């Protein structure tokens, strides 16, 4: 995974990303990231681009998950 946070313009439907939901502490070491495919890209935000995953989770993208 990249440490570079993507912009909303770089994200597309179907890309797999790691996101943090609004009620999670982004800096917390014991948070569980949510990984899934993008369903909808909303907008850029200081916390990261806001998206809705295909599974319905909404949050801010922290990184793009690349195939190994």
In short:
The chain has 68 residues and is mostly beta strands. It has strands spanning 16-20, 34-43, 50-53, 58-64.
Explain what this protein looks like in three dimensions.
This protein is mainly β. It has one domain (8-64). 0% of the residues lie in helices and 38% in strands. The protein has strands at residues 16-20, 34-43, 50-53, 58-64. The chain has a 4-stranded antiparallel β-barrel. The radius of gyration is 11 Å and the shape is globular. 18% of the residues are buried. The model has no long low-confidence stretch (mean pLDDT 85).
List low-pLDDT spans.
none
Radius of gyration: 11 Å
- The beta-strand count equals 4
Structural class: mainly beta
**Average pLDDT figure:** 85
Measured by DSSP, the beta-strand proportion falls in 35-45%
Taking the sheet with the most strands, its summary is: 4 strands, antiparallel, barrel
Helix count, DSSP H or I runs of 4 or more residues? 0
Topology as a string of helices (H) and strands (E): EEEE
**Spatial separation of the terminal alpha carbons:** 9 Å
* Spatial order of the strands forming the largest sheet: 1-2-3-4
Total individual domains: 1
- Proportion in helices: under 10%
Pfam families: DUF2196
InterPro entries: DUF2196
Protein name: DUF2196 domain-containing protein
Organism: Natronolimnobius baerhuensis
């Amino acid at each position: 995974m990249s440490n570079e946070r993507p912009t909303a313009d770089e994200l597309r439907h179907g890309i797999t990303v790691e996101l943090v939901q609004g009620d999670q502490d982004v800096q917390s070491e014991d948070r569980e990231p949510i990984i899934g495919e993008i369903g909808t890209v909303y907008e850029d935000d200081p916390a990261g681009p806001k998206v809705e995953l295909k599974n319905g989770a909404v949050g801010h993208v922290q990184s793009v998950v690349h195939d190994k």
